């Protein structure tokens, strides 16, 4: 027997409000964008919000692309791209870059699992981490400059959105396979096994952006991401027996760079 529409509509609105709450939770957790107080940040919200991580990447990539293209009307492309990169760091609070630096320091300096986790937990940046961060930023600038020179600002924008979104999908995909290794930590509230439906939603939000302006580069980028994910799963499992929040940031940065490098290889 069908329920009256008057009873179905409030339930639908309630579900829509909850999904909006999860999205805003993800936005507030993964960026510096202020969110309304009613959203809250309960642990169960953070876990449910994980599937929106790639969609947040779409938003971050779109903001960065728009600001960079706008700056390109005032300054040379190289300067505009550098300003766009700075905006990305401010928008996300260098959240993922911090994971990259901490992970490289830990994996480079830790000989045992315990020592690796101790170094990763240290807020100070070491030689390995600083070198990795500088190299990553230089590679991003150089590859994005090549993309802009080949495809113009429109192509640059799509590649930027695709890289920000798909790299985040690659990062959360690790949560489908591995366990969080710390008893406590900043990623603990989101560190539950990711469901297949949530992962599929993240992939659908992100991967289609990769197929323009060159579908061949997009297919190659997807293949590279799959190989990168496989390698990271094996490496994290061997070194740590799972992952940490810094590992997710490390994976996101490597995935983003791999997309830029793959697109450039087709230019």
- Rounded mean pLDDT is 91
| Terminal Cα span | 59 Å
Tally of alpha and pi helices: 10
Tell me the strand percentage band. Answer: under 5%
Order of helices and strands: HHHHHHHHHH
Helix amount, in percent? over 70%
Number of domains: 1
Q: Quick one: overall form?
A: globular
Number of strand elements: 0
Task: Please state the structural category.
Answer: mainly alpha
- The residue ranges in which pLDDT falls below 50 over 5 or more consecutive positions are none
Characterize the biggest β-sheet: none
- Global Rg: 19 Å
What structural keywords apply?
globular; membrane; transmembrane; mainly alpha; 267 residues; EC 2.7.8.26; cobalamin biosynthesis
Describe the structure in brief.
It contains 10 helices and no strands.
Tell me about this structure.
The protein is mostly helical and 267 residues long. It has ten helices and no strands. The protein is globular, with a radius of gyration of 19 Å. The N and C termini lie far apart (59 Å).
What is the topological layout?
Elements: H1 5-30, H2 43-49, H3 53-71, H4 77-92, H5 95-109, H6 113-121, H7 127-177, H8 196-206, H9 215-239, H10 245-265
Subcellular location: Cell membrane
Keywords: Cell membrane, Cobalamin biosynthesis, Magnesium, Membrane, Transferase, Transmembrane, Transmembrane helix
GO molecular function: adenosylcobinamide-GDP ribazoletransferase activity; cobalamin 5'-phosphate synthase activity
């Amino acid at each position: 027997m069908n329920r009256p529409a008057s009873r179905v509509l409030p339930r639908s609105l309630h579900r829509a409000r909850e999904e909006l709450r999860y999205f805003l939770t993800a936005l507030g957790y993964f960026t510096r964008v202020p969110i309304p107080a009613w959203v809250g940040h309960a642990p169960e919200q953070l876990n449910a919000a994980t599937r929106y991580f790639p969609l947040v990447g779409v938003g971050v990539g779109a903001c960065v692309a728009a600001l960079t293209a706008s700056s390109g009307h005032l300054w040379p492309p190289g300067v505009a791209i550098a300003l766009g990169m700075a905006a990305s760091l401010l928008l996300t609070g260098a959240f993922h870059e911090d994971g990259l630096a901490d992970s490289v320091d830990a994996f480079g300096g830790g000989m045992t699992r315990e020592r690796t986790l101790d170094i990763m937990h240290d807020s100070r940046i070491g030689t390995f981490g600083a070198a990795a961060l500088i190299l990553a930023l230089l590679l991003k600038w150089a590859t994005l400059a090549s993309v802009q020179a080949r495809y113009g600002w429109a192509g640059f924008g799509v590649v930027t959105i695709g890289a920000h979104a798909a790299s985040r999908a690659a990062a959360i995909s690790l949560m489908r396979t591995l366990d969080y290794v710390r008893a406590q930590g900043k990623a603990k509230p989101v560190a539950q096994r990711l469901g297949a439906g949530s992962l599929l939603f993240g992939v659908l939000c992100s991967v289609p952006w990769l197929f323009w302006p060159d579908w061949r580069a997009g297919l190659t980028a997807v293949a590279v991401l799959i190989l990168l994910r496989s390698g990271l799963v094996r490496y994290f499992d061997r070194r740590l027996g799972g992952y940490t929040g810094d590992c997710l940031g490390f994976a996101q940065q490597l995935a983003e760079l791999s997309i830029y490098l793959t697109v450039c290889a087709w230019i």
